[in-house]
Design a protein that fits this description.
By secondary structure, the protein is mainly alpha-helical. Helix content is about 80%, strand content about 0%.
Length: about 270
């Protein structure tokens, strides 16, 4: 077992991938706990589609995919605000509109390339190709998400428990929900090189779903979510090193799913 872990760690590309996983897992799982507690998991699902045009546009223009993903995340928040501004529309419909619009735009941009194979790495990640410049950008995005969550923790916790009480206390729940969408997008952007545009939201939702099962408070849910993301993701990444047929991105996602399964089984045994 020691050799099974030590051998991959001797490779620089594996150390970079593990460090990138740590940075992305902290940001994604922390914001994911908020989304699961507030029953906003549909936001994470929508981000799989809404990040696509930003990532593809950045690649076509020669910019960093992180920048494209971050811009797409902010565009998602703006579209949701505009489409959901009217009472008869509703937030779910607004997210559906944003998801459909941006995903269609992403497909249009992909059609501008001569080969769809060029986008394989953008869609499913290139975890083993992460370098130091990627780690710096991932650290900046993760720090932005964590700092914002720390500064607004009391307001987010109050709104998650009772929106009416939070509103009376001067908190604006609608604005907080919109901010969570933007933060979720930035967290997903930090993992776009690691897992690709199609798998990033798994790192947000799956560990958080397991963390909520094990916790008794919002902070506890965040801590458990991050722990499950780190353990499951690292196990999947190490397994992909030893199994040539297992892609790194898929391995990390499956590892997180296994961690969720363990958490679910533990919760069931504890009653």
């Amino acid at each position: 077992m020691v050799d099974w872990i030590a051998e991959p760690l001797a490779q620089p590309f594996m150390r970079h991938a593990l460090l990138g996983l740590a940075l992305s897992a902290v940001a994604c799982a922390a914001i994911g706990a908020h989304l699961v507690v507030r029953r906003m998991t549909f936001v994470g699902s929508a981000l799989t589609h809404t990040l696509l045009p930003g990532v593809v546009a950045a690649w076509l223009l020669g910019f960093s995919p992180y920048l494209g993903a971050a811009v797409a995340a902010l565009a998602t928040a703006v579209l949701i605000a505009l489409a959901g501004g009217r009472r008869e529309t509703g937030e779910d419909a607004a997210i559906g509109v944003a998801q459909s619009t941006l995903f269609a735009l992403g497909i249009v941009l992909m059609a501008q390339s001569q080969s769809w194979r060029d986008f394989t790495g953008l869609l499913f990640g290139t975890a083993l190709g992460i370098d130091q410049s990627d780690l710096v950008l991932m650290a900046v995005l993760a720090a932005t998400v964590l700092l914002t969550l720390t500064c607004t923790h009391k307001e987010l916790e109050a709104a998650a428990l009772d929106e009416d009480y939070a509103r009376l206390a001067g908190v604006r729940p609608a604005l907080l929900r919109l901010a969570l969408v933007g933060l979720a997008g930035l967290a997903a952007a930090s993992a776009v090189r690691l897992l690709g545009a199609m798998l990033t939201t798994a790192l947000i939702i799956v560990p958080a779903a397991g963390g909520v099962l094990l916790a008794r408070s919002l902070f506890g849910a965040m801590a458990w979510s991050v722990s499950l993301a780190l353990l499951g993701g690292a196990a999947g990444l190490l397994a992909s090193y030893h199994l040539d047929s297992l892609p790194a991105g898929a391995g990390m996602v499956l590892g997180c799913c296994l961690a969720f399964g363990v958490a679910r089984l533990w919760r069931a045994l504890r009653g």
